[in-house]
């Protein structure tokens, strides 16, 4: 029964149909487009981070300390364990939605727990492997391929996140219980996680004092953490020294602690799922107030409530503007470090600072893709939207306007702060402000078009739409592709025109891209709405 449950949960969470958002066999064209987008995403990731870790590996190999790359891998895996477990454990282990379906079945609760934990770990392993692949490649390239080290690496990679998962899943339960009694539980959870992200981001500025590869500034910190937390040191020595003794330490300690954790929480998982989370509800006895407002602003208000009611939604679509805000504020205090990070991380050495700033802003705004998923998130309630006496294009424009409210103000503020700290010419700042507005309009309208053409109303949980749907994937990397068009134009005009004129041309190019999108929304939205069914 355990393997049957694992297979069922894997199909529910990681199947190709769930990841794509549609039946691949029935929609080969969509599958091809998404496949191209995935390849593009991998190329962007490898180009941005692969080069930095490859260069870091060269530096460490020259000084005879390439094993520090294993410490990087361990701590990055710890970070993935933090975010995945913290957001998934409380709703996946302790308060899972399918409890009412599973509890009456003749299946022992511990088998359900083991199966769900197995799937959670599989998702963690997959994500960690993808994000640490540049580190793995860099280490074995510079250190050399040793079959025994590879075997020890695979075994250690499976055991290294077990203790963090145990700690963070229990922490996730505690946060869920504590915040459930508060009125603004979702908002507090969002603030807590964003504060954690900002803290990590600011810490990276503090420790990054070198002017070559920004990762080299983290060597001493990561090396120190790995020396304090023994499993990281055991993992490093097991792989680098091919030490079976240290591998045994890692496997026995992490395996025993994790096994004990699973044994101890069995009763807790059963009780929490039986009781469920009781939220704090306040009754208002005051008179009901009616406030008339334009339909489009009512849609924006609805989108805002939905945005802040879901931690997963807010973090995935609001992460880019938060990082942009932190980076722009940090530019006031860490000018040289920021210039170095921009040039190294984006591979743009020799380009003007305006281009690097605009590239950073473009990438972060492309990560704000609410119009690409907000229609899908209506789910089975989509019929309510269709039945309202509001034009379909008004609904979509409201969703677009909300996305602009999320990203554009921070984008404009970032231009002003970067312009002040980096002493950019005023005329260039004005053109950059205009370009941010037009670019945001283009990607927002593009995202809305994607959601109209590829809606996903049939989903088990919001994560399938927010993180795994075709709309989310194509919107993110479609925004990057739109940014790339401006990049190609800049490359062709760089030696021919002044920077101010180039920025003006880029504004015109984005206006040209915006025109067919607006025409599509104006002429096709109503007809597409009538054909859609939840």
List the helices and strands and how they pair.
Layout: H1 2-14, H2 16-20, H3 28-62, H4 68-94, H5 99-102, H6 109-143, H7 147-159, H8 162-180, H9 185-207, H10 219-228, H11 230-240, H12 244-275, H13 295-309, H14 311-330, H15 335-345, H16 353-366, H17 382-387, H18 392-422, H19 426-453, H20 462-466, H21 470-493, H22 499-531
Helix pairs in contact: 1-6, 3-6, 3-21, 4-6, 4-8, 4-10, 4-11, 6-12, 7-11, 7-12, 8-12, 9-14, 10-11, 11-12, 13-18, 14-16, 14-18, 16-18, 16-19, 16-21, 18-19, 19-21, 19-22, 21-22
Report on the structure:
The protein is mostly helical. It folds into 2 domains: 27-275, no CATH class; 295-531, no CATH class. The model is unreliable at 205-214 and 345-349 (pLDDT under 50). The chain starts with a helix and ends with a helix. Helix 11 (230-240) packs across helix 12, helix 14 packs antiparallel against helix 16 (353-366) and helix 18 runs antiparallel to helix 19 (426-453). It is built from 22 helices and no strands.
Using brief descriptors, characterize the structure shown.
78% helix; 534 residues; 2 domains; mainly alpha
Radius of gyration of CA atoms, rounded to a whole number: 25 Å
Strand count:
0
Could you say which structural class the secondary elements and strand pairing correspond to? Answer: mainly alpha
Give the total of domains. Answer: 2
Main pleated-sheet profile: none
State the low-pLDDT regions, or none. Answer: 205-214, 345-349
Assess the beta-strand content as a share of residues.
under 5%
Enumerate how many helices there are, as a single number.
22
Mean pLDDT reading: 79
- Measured as a percent range, the helix fraction is over 70%
Give the overall shape, derived from the CA principal axes.
globular
Helix and strand sequence: HHHHHHHHHHHHHHHHHHHHHH
Q: Roughly how many Å apart are the termini?
A: 33 Å
């Amino acid at each position: 029964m355990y393997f049957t449950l694992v297979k069922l949960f894997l199909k529910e969470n990681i199947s190709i149909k769930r990841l794509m958002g549609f039946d691949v066999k029935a929609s080969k064209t969509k599958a091809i487009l998404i496949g191209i987008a995935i390849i593009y995403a991998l190329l962007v990731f490898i180009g941005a981070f692969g080069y930095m870790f490859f260069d870091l590996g060269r530096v460490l190999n020259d000084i005879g300390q390439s094993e520090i790359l294993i410490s990087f891998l361990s701590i990055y895996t710890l970070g993935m364990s933090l975010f995945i477990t913290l957001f998934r454990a409380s709703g996946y282990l302790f308060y899972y939605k399918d409890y009412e379906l599973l509890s009456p079945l003749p299946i022992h609760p511990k088998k359900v727990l083991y199966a769900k934990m197995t799937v959670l770990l599989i998702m963690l392993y997959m994500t960690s492997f993808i994000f640490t692949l540049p580190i793995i490649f860099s280490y074995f390239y510079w250190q050399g391929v040793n079959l025994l080290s590879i075997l020890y690496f695979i075994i250690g990679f499976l055991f290294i996140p077990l203790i963090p998962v145990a700690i963070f899943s229990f922490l996730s339960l505690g946060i869920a219980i504590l915040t459930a009694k508060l009125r603004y539980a979702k908002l507090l959870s969002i603030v807590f996680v964003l504060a954690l992200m900002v803290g990590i981001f600011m810490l990276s500025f503090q420790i990054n004092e070198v002017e070559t590869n920004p990762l080299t500034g983290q060597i001493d910190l990561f090396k120190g953490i790995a020396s304090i937390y023994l499993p990281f040191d055991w993992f490093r020595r097991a792989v680098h020294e091919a030490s079976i003794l240290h591998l045994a330490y890692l496997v026995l300690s992490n395996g025993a602690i994790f096994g004990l954790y699973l044994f101890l929480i069995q009763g807790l998982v059963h009780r929490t799922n039986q009781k469920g989370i009781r939220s704090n509800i306040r009754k208002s006895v005051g008179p009901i107030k009616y406030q008339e407002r334009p339909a489009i602003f009512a849609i924006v208000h609805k989108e805002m409530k939905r945005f802040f009611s879901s931690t997963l939604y807010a973090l995935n679509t609001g992460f880019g503007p938060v990082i942009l805000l932190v980076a722009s504020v940090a530019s006031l205090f860490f000018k040289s470090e920021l210039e170095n990070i921009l040039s190294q991380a984006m591979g743009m050495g020799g380009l003007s600072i305006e281009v690097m700033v605009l590239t950073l802003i473009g990438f972060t705004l492309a990560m704000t893709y609410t119009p690409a998923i907000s229609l899908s998130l209506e789910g089975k309630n989509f019929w309510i939207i269709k039945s309202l006496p509001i034009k379909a294009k008004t609904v979509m424009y409201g969703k677009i306007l909300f996305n602009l409210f999320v990203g554009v103000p921070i984008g404009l503020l970032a231009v002003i702060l970067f312009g002040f700290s980096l002493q950019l010419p005023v005329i260039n700042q004005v053109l950059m402000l205009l370009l941010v507005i037009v670019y945001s309009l283009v990607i927002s309208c593009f995202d809305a078009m994607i959601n109209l053409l590829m809606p996903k109303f049939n989903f088990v949980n919001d994560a399938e739409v927010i993180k795994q749907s075709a709309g989310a994937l194509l919107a993110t990397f479609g925004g990057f592709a739109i940014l790339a068009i401006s990049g190609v134009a800049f490359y062709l005009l760089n030696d021919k025109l002044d920077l101010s004129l180039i920025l003006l041309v880029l504004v015109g190019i984005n206006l040209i891209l915006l025109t067919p999108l607006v025409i599509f929304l104006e002429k096709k939205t109503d007809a597409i709405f009538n054909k859609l069914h939840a």
